[in-house]
Amino acid sequence: MPKYVYKFSEGNASMRNLLGGKGANLAEMTGLGLPVPRGFIVTTEACTRYYEDKESIAPEIADEIFTMLADFEKTVGKTFGDPKNPLLVSVRSGSRASMPGMMDTILNLGLNDVVVEGLAELTENKRFAYDSYRRFIAMFSDVVMEVPKSSFEDELDAVKASRGVKLDTDLDAEAMKEVVERYKALYLDVKGHSFPQDPREQLIESIIAVFRSWNNERAIIYRRMNDIPGSWGTAVNVQEMVYGNMGDTSGTGVAFTRNPSTGESKLYGEFLINAQGEDVVAGIRTPQTIDQLQEVMPDVYKQFNDIAHKLEAHYRDMQDMEFTIERGKLFMLQTRNGKRTAAAAMKIAVDLVNEGMINKEEALLKIDPKQLDALLHPTFEPKALKQAKPIARGLPASPGAAFGRVYFDANEATRASERGEKVILVRLETSPEDIQGMNVAQGILTGRGGMTSHAAVVARGMGKCCVSGCSELNIQEKNKYFVTADGTKYLEGDDISLDGTTGYVYSGQVPTMEATLSGDFATIMAWADEFRTLKIRTNADTVRDAAKAVELGAEGIGLCRTEHMFFEPDRIFAFRQMIVAKEEKARRAALEKILPMQRQDFIGLFEVMRGMPVTIRLLDPPLHEFLPQEDNEIKELADALNLSAKELTEIIRSLHEINPMMGHRGCRLAVTYPEIAEMQTRAIIEAAVAVNNNGMSVIPEIMIPLTCDAAELKYVKSLIVETADTILRETGAKLTYKVGTMIEIPRAALTADEIARDADFFSFGTNDLTQMTYGLSRDDAGKILDTYYSKKIFESDPTARLDLVGVGKLMQIATDLGRQARPDIKLGICGEHGGDPSSIAFCHQLGFDYVSCSPFRVPIARLAAAQSAINSK
Amino acid sequence: MPKYVYKFSEGNASMRNLLGGKGANLAEMTGLGLPVPRGFIVTTEACTRYYEDKESIAPEIADEIFTMLADFEKTVGKTFGDPKNPLLVSVRSGSRASMPGMMDTILNLGLNDVVVEGLAELTENKRFAYDSYRRFIAMFSDVVMEVPKSSFEDELDAVKASRGVKLDTDLDAEAMKEVVERYKALYLDVKGHSFPQDPREQLIESIIAVFRSWNNERAIIYRRMNDIPGSWGTAVNVQEMVYGNMGDTSGTGVAFTRNPSTGESKLYGEFLINAQGEDVVAGIRTPQTIDQLQEVMPDVYKQFNDIAHKLEAHYRDMQDMEFTIERGKLFMLQTRNGKRTAAAAMKIAVDLVNEGMINKEEALLKIDPKQLDALLHPTFEPKALKQAKPIARGLPASPGAAFGRVYFDANEATRASERGEKVILVRLETSPEDIQGMNVAQGILTGRGGMTSHAAVVARGMGKCCVSGCSELNIQEKNKYFVTADGTKYLEGDDISLDGTTGYVYSGQVPTMEATLSGDFATIMAWADEFRTLKIRTNADTVRDAAKAVELGAEGIGLCRTEHMFFEPDRIFAFRQMIVAKEEKARRAALEKILPMQRQDFIGLFEVMRGMPVTIRLLDPPLHEFLPQEDNEIKELADALNLSAKELTEIIRSLHEINPMMGHRGCRLAVTYPEIAEMQTRAIIEAAVAVNNNGMSVIPEIMIPLTCDAAELKYVKSLIVETADTILRETGAKLTYKVGTMIEIPRAALTADEIARDADFFSFGTNDLTQMTYGLSRDDAGKILDTYYSKKIFESDPTARLDLVGVGKLMQIATDLGRQARPDIKLGICGEHGGDPSSIAFCHQLGFDYVSCSPFRVPIARLAAAQSAINSK
Question: Which of A759, B453, B803, B858 would give a disulfide with B552, using CB separation of 3.0 to 4.6 Å?
Answer without folding.
Answer: B858
